[in-house]
Amino acid sequence: MNVTVVVAEKVLEFKVYLATVTCNRDFQEMLLQAESIGKFVEPCRHIIIINEPNPNIKFWYKWLTPYYKNHELIILPGYEDVSKTHKITGKKLMGWTTQQVQKLFIGMKHEFLDDYILLDSKNFFVKPTKLDDFAHLIGAGGLVEIKHPYEETNEYYAEMLGLTPFEKVFPVITPFVVKTKYLRKFWPNQVEDMMVHGVYTKGPKKGKEILVSEFLFYTYLVDKEELFALDNEYKRGLGRTIWDWSIDSLEHSLYQEDWNVYAIHREVIKKLYPSGFDFINTWLAEKGLTNKIRPRFIPS
Amino acid sequence: MYLATVTCLRDFDQMLLQAESIGKFVEPCTHVVVINDENPDLNFWYKWLMPYYKNHELLLYPAVKVKSTHPKTLKETSGWNSQQLHKFLIGLNCYHINDDDYLILDSKNFFIKPTKLSEYENIIGSGLLDFVNKTPFKICNEYYAELFNVEPLEKILVTSTPFVIKTTLIRQYTRESLEKIFLEGENSKGEPVHPSEFIFYSYLVKEYLQDMQEIVIGLQFYKNEIDNLAYHIHGLHTKHVKICGIHRELLHMAYPSAIDFLNDWLYNLGLENKLYPIPLNLDYNQTK
User: Fold this and answer.
1) Using one digit for the tens of pLDDT, what is the confidence trace for B233-266?
2) A278-288, pLDDT tens digit by residue?
3) Contact at 8 Å (CB) between B216 and B239?
4) Do B256 and A274 touch (CB under 8 A)?
5) What is the separation of C-alpha B202 from the centre of its chain, rounded to a whole number of angstroms?
6) CATH value at residue B214
7) Residue B215 lies in a domain
8) CB A293 within 8 A of CB A264
9) Residues 222-261 (B) with a CB less than 8 A from some CB of A
10) Is the pTM of this model over 0.95?
11) Does B171 touch chain A (CB under 8 A)?
12) ipTM of the complex
């Protein structure tokens, strides 16, 4: 009788992995994301960074592990060397800023050099997905024109990297594919210094902390040739975010469009009526997902 | 008598359960809900709570502005301290204009049996007493003794909800004096004191505590009761207790099976809202 021996380590030799930077506030969304990965995504590694002071990692493992029967789950506290305060103004950095740094540090802090797909806590999969489908892409798969209020941030990042400001950059949309070879041109502290610790040099905000955007910054790290080989006009991201302006066309967004990954924006969660929750939760149940979206209000 | 809860966005899920339980089990009454967040969106709260108040009057208020920092230490006023103050500001007519006494609920409280509020009319505070030296409130107790210029109490009202407040006792104070007591508390050595609204109230009723008939009006499940949930739930149904409370720490520690167990119990009571696992240190101001 012939027996085929499969070495476990080989099975777990992933090429592209998933990564999410989250926080306690988004725990509920992460349950849905974890369930959707377990149900729809081919076996892969998923790194989750809990961007909180002293996070209870055991709590997170307790609730997420049951969904990772065929996937490798790595839950880590935030990387400690991410600054707590702005180096010029001395002001405390908000979670909103530090989580952006954490997202890029993932690609620089581990021995594995694989590329990764960044998810937001609110992302979840709704159909069978191979990560290879995303692996050839960079960022969100296209570029968009720089938008207000990121004009000065764009100029600042260009200056930091000795380049002419770009007119088109990666949009702030997840999933977002990060090629580690671009990140690894620098040390993590260099990336943070360039991305976070700038101030406005003119106008009414002069001297105040510059608005940070990790995806905009990442645009400047990507090789120019490869960047402009991307379709110049951004047509479609890798996932569909339901924004509050499409709250009245849920049926079309959920049933008529064809996406692997969805996200319900918190503004929708805030504004939706009970019937809207029922509608979305019925759709999730039809997809075989048991976790639900629940009403909550996150201050803007 | 009416019901009153001081809550915040963090406790929104628990408030849905509380609202549902009031709608299902409590005789028609008024429920004053104070949202102790900065610039709360009352429309959001009304949208989700209102459906449960078909036979009750729901009055939602944003918390009135109180001192944002301690004048000496310059430390930011915590939500923990300010919510204690708001529980008494309700009695001062800062919210609902009413002379009735009120039953203070915590966000985690919910009703489990048909209840008439008249049952609580003669209850003093939480209805139970405890020796101060068995509690972590020694410094706080001494501070209030100094404030009232009396000997420190040996026995205080148990610091838990539900808790009955006699409005006339609160009306002896002005809003300013209560703010000073709860937000600027310091003992004779100038040391800041963490307030306790229920120990303060114990001093207001101290002459009644000596002969008080103790009665259990609410049961709380703390984290150390996690391994005996079935026993405690059985206890709830054999006693005359009608109000329950499940601590956040218990929900944090509970395994999925324990959460399922509690939710099965709620379902059997006829309550559709559920309890959920919760991370501690939830920060709703960590804006994205």
Assistant:
1) 888 777 789 999 999 999 999 999 999 999 999 9
2) 999 999 999 99
3) yes
4) no
5) 15
6) 3.90.550
7) yes
8) yes
9) 252, 255-256
10) no
11) no
12) 0.85
